[in-house]
Design goal:
Elements (H helix, E strand, L loop, with lengths): L10 E3 L2 E7 L5 E6 L5 E5 L6 H10 L3 E6 L11 H8 L2 E3 L18 E4 L2 E7 L8 E5 L2 E5 L2 E2 L2 E2 L9 H14 L5 E4 L9 E2 H7 L7 H10 L8 H10 L6 E2 L1 H9 L6 E3 L3 H6 E2 L4 E2 L9 H5 L5 E4 L4 H10 L7 E4 L2 H7 L5 E2 L6 H22 L5 H17 L3 H7 L16 H8 L11
Parallel strand pairs: 4-5, 5-6, 10-13, 15-20, 16-18, 16-19, 19-20
Antiparallel strand pairs: 1-2, 2-3, 3-4, 7-8, 8-9, 9-10, 11-12, 13-14, 17-21
Helix pairs in contact: 1-2, 3-5, 7-11, 12-13, 12-14
The protein binds fe (ii) ion.
């Protein structure tokens, strides 16, 4: 399983089964299924979760006639395209989204059928003009309209606070209080709420229309990291490239995307120089810190000194279902040569130089001991030589891995310590900035 956020069993909601999948980035993916016909629908699939959802659907013996995006996502890559391809599903999004590959554009009030169960599509603009929500028996899948004790932001992609107010209050007037609310995001790990609980506890719902508009526009949160790149991906359906040039990396960092740069060199090398705002997750820690990597906004840029360790990191993360990883071609060296911004500090020399010095010293010591002490010591030089040949042929380096674990390379670097405002922007994602103060 690619993430620890998949529940052990689907929830029973009304006459449907609901599988809520919580992505560490705060995004929600849902699978709704009819237990009788075994037909299912996947909603707002994060690209990282495509394998997880495919496995869950196949393990449950379900088919997947529909894959739905509630709107154009600006904070994460959609996995709707690849998942629909695997199941031959109909891809659904509002016509205003203009997504490539979408085969059905529902109007307000259209219905989707899972066996005899009916899921109603409602057009609910406000967060974005193309926003739809799903209403099923006893459940409201709100996407980015009404969130738990919050509402969606409206400051980008043609968002409109007045429309959001009208959409939310229109739906609240129709839905019974015991309807369960399944939001498109929750940054506190809550699975669901209910319409009644939100009417009681959500401070945004207590506001009149004019105050709502005033409050939601007063303090817009930071734009999601990589928003332009994500919009391209989600609209055009293009894949995240395996390699990104140093030029493009420097450009993305200048545009505020440093929070998506993951540096897999040792802590010591990172301390010596790094992309300001990047995360330090050394190669030997990437598996243990996989959830931390999932929480970093995609497309994620993996960087090391050249690009060898970054490629190795991608190889070990792929089986964990972590997608949206691009290797920075030529690594920090090329990035620096292209004028990319770097923060310099006190650190240690690069791992590659340490390996060269270490190997050279062992050859010298072997030769000296072989000459002056005993010929058997020539074996040490031969062993190191054979090791270097093996490392060259297999593109692995045991000595490098060993040296990386040496104490002088174990500099403690808090991940994302330099992310500053960007780190705060990730939890903000698609939610409005702050709940209004209540009188
Ligand atoms: Fe959104």
């Amino acid at each position: 399983m690619s993430t620890a956020t998949l529940p052990s069993a689907p929830r029973t909601v009304g006459d449907l089964r609901v599988l809520p999948v919580l992505h560490p980035q705060g995004c929600r993916t849902y699978v709704l299924a009819d237990p009788t016909s075994r037909q299912a629908l996947a909603l707002d699939v994060h690209l990282d979760l495509v394998d997880t959802i495919e496995a869950a659907v196949r393990d449950a013996g379900w088919t997947l006639p529909y894959v739905v995006d509630t709107h154009t996502h600006a904070d994460h890559p959609s996995g709707a395209g690849p998942l629909a391809e695997r199941f031959g599903s109909t891809r659904i999004a509002h016509a205003l989204a203009g997504h490539a590959g979408v085969t059905r554009h529902p109007d307000d009030g259209d219905t989707l059928h899972l066996g005899d169960r009916v899921v109603t599509v409602r057009h609910a603009p406000g967060h974005t003009p193309d926003h739809i929500v799903l209403v099923a028996d006893g459940a409201f899948f709100a996407g980015d309209t009404l969130l738990i004790e919050s509402v969606a932001r409206t400051d980008f992609l043609g968002g409109n606070p007045g429309q959001l107010y009208d959409s939310i209050h229109g739906l609240l007037a129709e839905l019974p209080d015991d309807t369960l609310l399944y939001p498109g995001h929750d940054y506190e790990g809550r699975e669901h709420s209910s319409i009644g609980a939100e009417k009681r506890d959500n401070p945004w719902l207590a506001l009149d229309r004019e105050t709502f508009i005033e409050q939601i526009t007063a303090n817009p949160p930071t734009r999601p990291a990589n928003m332009d790149a994500l919009l391209d991906l989600n609209r055009q359906g293009t894949a995240i490239p395996g390699l990104v040039s140093a030029d493009e990396t420097a450009e993305r960092v200048r545009a505020g995307g440093a929070v998506s740069v993951i540096d897999v060199r040792t802590g010591g090398e990172y301390a010596a120089e790094h992309v300001p705002g990047s995360h330090s997750i050394p190669l030997d820690q990437v598996v243990a810190r996989a959830d931390e990597i999932r929480a970093i906004p995609a497309p994620r840029l993996m960087i090391c000194r050249t690009d060898r360790r970054a490629r190795m990191a991608v190889d070990v993360l792929a089986p964990l279902g972590i997608s949206g990883l691009s290797v920075v071609e030529g690594g920090i060296e090329s990035y620096k040569a292209r004028g990319g911004e770097l923060l310099e500090g006190k650190g240690v020399m690069s791992l590659e130089r340490q390996v060269r010095i270490g190997a050279g010293l062992m050859v010298l010591i072997g030769a000296a001991l072989g000459t002056f002490v005993h010929p058997a010591f020539f074996g040490l030089s031969a062993f190191v030589g054979a090791g270097l040949v093996f490392a060259g042929i297999t593109d692995t380096c045991a000595m490098g891995m060993l040296i990386a674990r040496m104490p002088w390379n174990q500099v403690e670097v808090p991940s994302g310590a330099d992310a500053g405002g960007c780190a705060a922007s990730a939890p903000g994602g698609c939610a409005a900035a702050l709940p209004p103060t209540q009188e």
